[in-house]
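Q: My collaborator sent me two sequences in one message, no labels, and asked for predicted structures for both. Can we handle them in order? The first one she listed is below.
A: Yes, handling them in the order given. First sequence, followed by its structure tokens:
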Amino acid sequence: MIKGANIALRDLSETVGGVLVRLTWSSDSGDGDADASVLLLNASGKVRSDADFFFYNNPDAPDGSVQLLGKTPAADGNEDRISLDLSAIPPDVERVAIAASRYGGARFGDLHDLRLTLSDAAGEELLGFSIDDAGPESAFVFGEIYRRAGEWRFRAIGQGYESGLAGLVTDFGIDVDDEGEDDTAEDDTAESAAEVREPEQPLVDAVPAPPPVSEPVVVATVPVPARRPRTARKKVTLPKVAKKSLAEHDSWKQARLFPVPSLKNDREREARATSVLLSVMAQVPEFGRRLTAAFGAPAGRMETFTEVSLPHGDAPKRPDGVIRIERAGKLWTALVETKTNGNPLKPEQVQDYVDIAARRGYEAVITLSNDVALEGSPLVEIKIDRRRKHKVSLWHLSWAEVTHQARMLIRHEGVGNAAHAWVLHELLHYLEHGSSGCHGFQNMGPSWVPVRNAIDEETLGQGDRRAVDVVESWERLVRQVCLRLGGELGQKVLPVQRGRRTADPGARRVALADQLCRDGRLNAELRIEGTRRVLAITADLRTGKLRTSVDVPAPEQGYPLSWAKRLLRQLSDAPADVHVETLVEEGTGPRGTLERLRPEPADLLPGDGARITGFRLSLFKSMGNTRGNAETSFIRSIDEAVDHFVNGVVTPLERRPSRRSQRAEQDQAKDALAGAI
């Protein structure tokens, strides 16, 4: 579509009761980002109240009409997704504005490939609109869905605001307090201070008992005078400190809602995992809605079933599960096929379920396994009969994604009541148990060992298909690391895609495979939302070493020696074997371990007086060799390396210095200036 054009959604698809909107962008540096938002507007083009503004802190409408699904990795980078249930939009809402904004002085002109795409409930892309004239604007209305003569239409708008999100929402009737003029770290600090958690959430494995219903733990997000509006919500999370156990002896095992005994075979694991997950989805609305919204499901009453027999040819088929959601007298139905313990999905089974769903008028087939799906590289190949009027969408969900969503809700975001928090806690305990089989991506595939051996023997040539398989496995692993780390930190963690977007993910992976053949290294970069750091991971298959690193830019003011001392103070509790390298404009700067540099911070200063641009902090460790579940496996070594680096290096860097240390730095700077004079 071109700017200003409009079209009726009914002309594009017969299934537009629910639509999925994707906002995408890219940048040369890979660090460009923005936040999506939605506004519900009346006939006057204004919100009915501030509750009609949906953004990062108010992502869901109570009636399910709007849900911000957050950022997710895509083949060409990252995208922000929005689920809209048009059948649930209140009748006095005439327009749905879809927007995005940037903060801290960032502008949309610094990004490339700004694009909105809209898909129907079956996942088929209906339209796209690209914005090519972005400049100094820090907020944009990409488009709007509006009513005309009883039907929904889409209009491509592409209107920017140099005044940012505050200017945009003010135009639509939102009142914004102007006291918080700075959308920088100080503003984020004020917002963080507004979240009151009493007590703070712990790691789930430290909580052996459920919180009593009579003593809920409430997380209240309250309005503060900041430029980004906030809405009040009450949520229940897990308590920080568990009550003293009443067990007589440490060997006593607590009774679990979902026990994990020694399951005899994979069939039992699949049946147990399916039943456990589907039952929790039906009983905890926040959790069930979070998992199904991305599949085009409406918000409504959910019921789930297992081992349902459905006719198909000479013999009935029994999908592992069925999800049914009722809204306004209409049913949305999805068949579920589950695999655990690393077992692959069987294309013939999935094909049968897609055929059954098409004949019976069901909307979707959802596959669930340890594997992670990649765009442009489907886990199973199926044939679609284009002659059929009814379309069935095929979706994949990994156990890692299920675990991530459960962690986010009970550790960080909260759910509706204490009983739901406890049920999710029990689900998480089940998923993380060694016998459940729900462990996420755990095998680098059959090409992994041959490629490693070929790199070691220098016999791997460009164009080798096995190298492409390894690149795909690496991409799956990186995405799973992002999910696991994000669940622990309570922040979105996304892989960084550098350079412009490409329409062919397969060609991009072939190029990365050729690079692997040349230098023998697998590389990835992760961005943790709320931090200014990009975490780099390098697996050197020639040397068998893993490197995790992060760059710290030099401050704009002050003296190099003060920078070095401040950095070493921030890393006072970091591992002694952290490598610190001084980055200079040309050439290489001094480097050394924290153990050597702590007594002599001046050793970080280049002897030739070269201008310092920053510092690079790195940790090295050996990577595992095996493919399976052994402690020395490659996948486990990646997880351990990332956790060790984030906890020991990245987290301390993000802590704000105390006032005492700030005064000490100022005094040192004054002394240095006096000495120079």
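Q: And the one she listed second?
A: Here it is, processed independently of the first:
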Amino acid sequence: MSATPVTRQNVRVLSNLPAARDTFVGRQQELSKLDQLLRRHRLVTLVGSAGAGKTRLALEAAGRLRRGRTDRVLLVSLGEITASRDVMPALADALGVIAQFDEPLRDTVVETLVNMKMLVVLDNCEHLLDTCAELTDVLLNRCPGVRVLATSREALWITGEVSFHVEGLPVPSTDRDVVTMAAPRSEAVKLFVDRARERKPDFRLTLDDTAAVALLCARLEGMPLAIELAARWVQLLPVAAICDRMDEPLELLTLGCRKSPSRQSSLREAIDWSYQLLQPDEQFALRRLSVFDGGFDLAAANEVCSSERSAEPVLDVLSRLQAKSLLAAIPGTTRFRQLETVRLHAREKLLAAGELDVAYEALARWFTDLSDVLITAPLSMPADVQHKLDNHVDSLLGTVEWAADRADERLLLLTAALADCTARRGLLGQARMMLRDALRRPSTRDDYRCVALNHAARFAAGQGDHAEAAELSAEASRLVRDIGQPALVMSSRSTLAAVQQSSGEWEASVENNTECLRVAELLGEPLARATALVDLARTALSLGKHERAEKNVMSALPISRASGVPARIASALNTRGAVSLVQGDLDEATHAFQEALRMDGLNPLTAPDALEGLAVVALTRGQAERALRLEATGRAMRRSVGVVPNPFWAEKVAGAMRTARLMLPVARAEAAATPLTAADTEAFIQDEVWLDRTEAAFDSLDDHERRVVALLASGLTNQQIANRLNVSVRTVASRLQRLRDKLGLQSREDIAAWGAERAIG
């Protein structure tokens, strides 16, 4: 019997790929994309940082190649090869080619491959880039049936290459409201659970552990190697304890495998492998950049990286570090970031090199230059300076801690800038604590102390702590007299006026703000002028001088809009809305409050005024339920940050809500006075759609639900309703729970009252 000829239909895909020893988790979209790329391109390079899972993804993609797509799949592992001369022998060995005495090995390999249909997987090329690039170029030029799938921390940079960036696995939300539902579906969490069961077969993701695993995966940024190493600790520690130790991930993630390459035996070795491959100027820059926590821009990088030790332009070095997967550009911005584990490794190198203080000194100098506006133009901070500080707030915190450890004289100014950023995020209590701690320390700069006192006084007034606010603003007023800075004097008077306004001292507030307005005009500071005008409008409103209030706020609005600062614009719009409200112009008030919400979103420092203003508008139009729901939403926001309204506004809103409650039955009023969810509030802001679930659900009730509501409204018990409907009491209770969820009501009594008012039957 003759042998069966080898044809395309029955050819077997042969490979030297190692058999998988554990489950491949996730990455289905990446595998699909890789399959498409390998169909269309002859060279695809998987590029990513240490521990991103490039090798495992490449092996999985290569192993899934369909019969007929290739004759063979050849893995060439380069991780343990250190010399360029050993690359070709490694390929020959994998291919099973023996060197011929009368022919160069390269020619022998090429002649073997020239008529073959093969995928060559070149794994770990980063330390042999030039040699791998040259070899790949030869294979692609001379062997038309060969395709190459390479893995590297940097692209090969040859013609025809397609780079495929491998990032960490998607991480779950750590929001406590959704984490228990979202986390088990996360690829990162699935990987942790799978690898944990290798060490502890009975491991289960309990409800208590879910949030901890989600947080751990998020802190490890979804990097597979880090997650796998962390999972190996479950045989020794509870998940919560592993998560608690993530402050030192390089120390914790060291449980490797005896058979792993040395660079993969721990996270530190994996990252150090990349570090050792860098040029000296790249190592220098990477060390210096480790002082940035949370990202940085080019200007900030220039400050800490410019040195006689780094002759190359900083942007050029950054681009090379990005190409080597040690930096990442933040999408949609002109900023960069390091993976946290890379940053911590670079910080270790910074300490070992004795450069920590030099780097932080450069960063402190940069932040001080930015923050100088708090002295020279404290009421007129440009939007770009504010954005820079906000974008580098985590690094600013680190700089403040560094300055505090060294009793640096810049501490008070830097803390004031940090507190300003913190307060803009709604964390007034935290901002006050920072300033209290800094103000207890000795200071040699009265101007810095005055800035810190003014900030502390404003924040205390905002939270209704009038005694502390008055004490702080009084000290600032005494201190500023001898400083000789007109802008700082103006700022201190503005702070004093704000403190007086918060406690209802309207006439005194008017006097100080009027002086601020005069100085702002003399100094030619339009933003300071707008601040004074808005404050004067509020005090005029409180004093019943409505025309003056309108004149002031209308003068301030165009200046505020030109500032480009959302919170400043929203504040002016809220004041415009309040003026229109007391003048009876409900349409203008509505427009102003809605624009304020769209301008500054759910900022808890500005949104409550707008929501409360819209609540008063709703009440005036006879919409009591709407009024109570909006006011409750604004009040919940205030409570979340501890901000209180000024006495005039507080009384106006409270009076309107008392009227709204009188317009409704008690149960209905209580049901309405519950805050909107964040999602509902966001939808209301964006679409101006009122999301009252009780009204929206009216038409969605089916006949069975209407029958239950009608029986409940008639005063029957659950047992009596069950008897009427010929169902169990448990079924009635279940239906009532669904009704509570659908209607957004809190109790059985709320449903009964709701049904009675609408005569459902």
